[in-house]
Design brief:
homodimer, 385 residues, alpha/beta, Rossmann fold, Rna Polymerase Sigma Factor, Chain: A, 2 domains, two-stranded antiparallel ribbon, 13 strands, globular
C-alpha cells in the first residue's frame, strides 16, 4: 500500500475543456427489479459521454456522482453556459481523465431527479408520477442500472469506475458485483459502511422534509412540495461537506448586515455564513426533488459492505486494482474510513493503494482541483494493470 | 500552563447527593437595560442554592448552564423525582463542588424559558407575552443579570464561577466584566468566539423554526408554536454535542425495525440512532420555548471576546485565576479553541491552567463524570488563590 501523504500545492491545471456537450437518454423497455423488492416495468438512464469509444471498447471510464450530483460531469451546454460540469477540470483532452485516450461516461443515478427514472417519473401503469410507489432503493440498484447502460453501449469491461462520496461507494460496489466488468476503481472520500453520525445527519434532513406540510406524503405537484424542509436539509448537509477551517477561512465572523438591522429583523441574516447557507438552501430546491432526496439518502444509509461478513470477505470477488483516496479535513467520511477500505482490500489479497490528500475543504475536497490528487488519478489510470 | 492530558478512567464518584431541593425566584423591580438597546421595566431570576453561605459571604460558587440548561444543577424535587439536576455528580457533600464548604448557586439565564424572564414572559406594559418585543440579547446581558442576583444575595465576591459551553463563555465574561467580584473561573468546552461553523449550525436550526408556519412571527400560544422546526433544530444540534465515535459505540448501524417495515413505512425509523434522535427532538419541544431558542442561539453567535481587540487585551482586566478545560472529542468547541483561551490569558500575565480531558463523548463530555475532570475541579476550587 502506498500511504501517500502529499501536501496540497497550488494546483496546475493541465489539458483543456471538452467543449460543448449534450446529454443522451437510454430507455430500457425491460423491467428493473429492486434489491428490497418491487420493480418498475421500464426505465430511462440519462448520461453524457466525452471522448471516443475505441474499437475494442476497452477505454471507457464510468464516473459516478455524489448524493445530489448528476450526469453532467464536464463541458458546457452552450457558449453562454457559465457553469461547466461538476468535475470539469478532471475530464478533457490532456486532463487526468484524458479524453484523447478515454471514453468517459457520466450517468444520473436511478432514483434521482435529473433525467434517470425516479419517484418523480411517470409510472406507466397509472400515468401519474410514482411518488412513494417507486420501490425502495439501494446503491446496488443504482450500480445495476449503470451496468445495464454500460452493457447497452456494448462495453464488456470498463477501463475504470471512479467516483467520490456516494459515487465512491458505487465504485466499490462495481468491483464487488461486476468483477469481470471493471479493471480499475477509484473511490474518493467515501466509506465501506454508512456510520451512525452520517445516518443521524440524513435523518435530520429527512425529518425536516417529512414534517413539512408541503410534503403531502410525497404526492406534491412538480415545482411545489416541501421546499422549506428540503432547504433546511440542504443547509445542514452542506455544513457536513465543509470543514470548520474552510468556513473560518471563507467567512469567519464577517457580518453581512450592520448592527442597525438587528432591531428591525433580529433573526434575519447577520453573518456572511448565514447568507451563504440560506443561498445554498434556496438554490437547491430549484434543482432537486424532495422525494429523490429521501430515497437517495436512505439508499446511502443502507449501504454497508460488511453486513453479515467481514470487509475483507466483501472484497474477495474483486479483480480490479483500486485507488482509495481520503482527505485530511473530511469529517463526514474521514481518512480513517477510507484507509480502512484499502486495508481490507490488501488483506483480501487485492491490488490497492491509499492516498491521503491534505486539503482543508472538508468532504467537498474531492470536488476541488488538487495537483496531488490529479497526479495520483492520472498515474493510476495510465498504469498497466 | 499545566497542559494536562489525562486519560479517562472509570470514574470514582465521591461524596453524596444534596438531597431534596427547591428553586427560588428573585424579582427585580428596577429596569434592565440590554447591550444592543432596549430595556425591560422589571425581571425575575430563578435560581437554586445548595450548601450554606458562610458569615463573610466568601464561599459562593456560581454555576452557569449551557444553551438549553437551567438552574436545576443538583438534587431532586421530590422523593419520587427520578431525574436529578444536570450536574448532580459534581455538586454535593464531599463532591468536587463540596456543599460542606461551598454555597453553590444555579441560575436560569436571562432570555430563557424556565423561570427567568424571557420572550415568553408577560410584558407588564401590555399584559401579554413579550414575544419579539423582548430586546435582543447577548451573553453579557445574561451575566449582568447573574451579577444582579449575586449582589442581591449580599455576595461581593464569588469564590468561583464555573460553567460549560455557553456557561463557560459566561464564566470568561465574569472574569473580564466583574474582575473584583470573582476569585476563580472554570470554563469547560467553550470558545472565546463563536466560529463560523457554530454560527452555521445555529442558523440551520433557526431557519427550521422561523420557516415553520407555527412560528407566526413569534406570536404563538403557549404549548403551540413551531414544534416541528424546534424539534428539527434540536435533532441537528444534538448531533453536534456528540461525536462520531460515541454515536458509533452507542448505536452503530443497529436496526430498530426489521426490513419488513420498509415497504409499509419506508421513511420511518429504521436505525436505532434515528429513533434516539427523534426522541431527542420530541422531548425537547415539551421543555423549551422556540423564541428563547432563537434569542439564546443568537446571543451565542454574537459572542466574540476578540471583537475590536486581541484576546490578550480582552483578558487584561481579569484578576481571577482560571482553569480552562477542553475535551479531546469535542468538535463543536474543539480543544484548540479552549487552549487558545488559556494561552491568551497567560500572555496577558494571568494565572491560567489548561487541562485536556480524553473522553469520546464529544461536546457533551463536560456533562459526564470523569475522574480526571472532577479531580482537576476539586483541586482548583480548594487551592489558595
Amino acid at each position: 500500500m502506498t500511504d501517500d501523504e502529499i501536501s496540497n500545492n497550488d494546483t496546475e491545471i493541465e489539458g483543456s475543456d471538452v467543449g460543448l456537450v449534450s446529454f443522451q437518454d437510454h430507455s430500457f423497455s425491460e423491467p428493473f427489479a429492486f434489491d428490497l423488492g418491487g420493480s418498475i416495468p421500464s426505465f430511462n438512464v440519462r448520461y453524457e459521454t466525452y471522448g471516443e469509444l475505441n474499437q475494442d471498447k476497452s477505454n471507457a471510464i464510468l464516473v459516478c456522482h455524489a448524493l445530489t450530483g448528476d450526469h453532467h460531469v464536464a463541458g458546457r451546454y452552450s457558449e453562454e453556459d457559465r457553469k461547466p460540469g461538476w468535475w470539469n477540470l478532471l475530464v478533457g483532452p490532456g486532463r487526468p481523465l484524458d479524453t484523447n485516450k478515454y471514453f468517459v461516461i457520466g450517468t444520473n443515478c436511478l432514483g434521482g431527479c435529473q433525467g434517470t427514472t425516479g419517484p418523480g417519473s411517470i409510472n406507466p401503469a397509472t400515468g401519474a408520477p410514482y411518488y412513494l410507489d417507486f420501490p425502495q432503493l439501494t446503491l446496488r440498484d443504482m450500480v445495476r442500472a449503470q451496468y445495464r447502460l454500460v452493457s447497452a453501449l456494448g462495453i464488456k469491461k470498463l477501463h475504470a469506475v471512479i467516483g467520490g462520496s456516494m459515487g465512491g461507494m458505487q465504485a466499490l460496489l462495481w468491483g464487488i458485483e461486476y468483477p469481470d466488468a471493471v479493471n480499475r476503481i477509484v473511490a474518493l472520500a467515501c466509506s465501506a459502511r454508512q456510520n451512525a453520525q452520517a445516518i443521524a445527519f440524513n435523518e435530520v434532513g429527512r425529518s425536516a422534509i417529512l414534517q413539512d406540510p408541503g410534503w403531502e406524503n410525497g404526492r406534491y405537484q412538480k415545482g411545489q412540495g416541501p421546499q422549506v424542509g428540503l432547504a433546511v436539509a440542504r443547509m445542514m448537509a452542506h455544513i457536513t461537506y465543509l470543514s470548520d477551517q474552510s468556513l473560518e477561512r471563507k467567512f469567519g465572523r464577517e457580518r453581512r448586515n450592520q448592527d442597525a438591522n438587528i432591531t428591525h429583523d433580529p433573526f434575519g441574516v447577520e453573518f456572511e455564513v448565514e447568507s451563504y447557507l440560506r443561498y445554498q438552501g434556496k438554490t437547491f430546491i430549484n434543482r432537486f426533488d424532495a422525494n429523490s432526496y429521501l430515497y437517495i439518502t436512505k439508499a446511502n444509509d443502507r449501504f454497508d459492505l460488511s453486513e453479515g461478513r467481514s470487509l475483507e470477505e466483501a472484497f474477495a470477488p474483486m479483480k480490479a486494482s483500486a485507488l482509495i483516496v481520503g482527505f485530511s479535513s473530511d469529517w463526514l467520511y474521514s481518512p480513517r474510513q477510507n484507509r480502512e477500505i484499502a486495508l481490507a482490500m490488501l488483506r483480501a489479497g487485492k491490488s490497492a493503494s491509499y492516498a491521503e490528500i491534505e486539503m482543508d475543504a472538508g468532504h467537498d475536497s474531492f470536488l476541488l482541483p488538487s495537483t496531488a490528487l490529479y497526479r495520483a488519478i492520472r498515474v493510476f489510470m495510465n498504469a498497466r494493470n
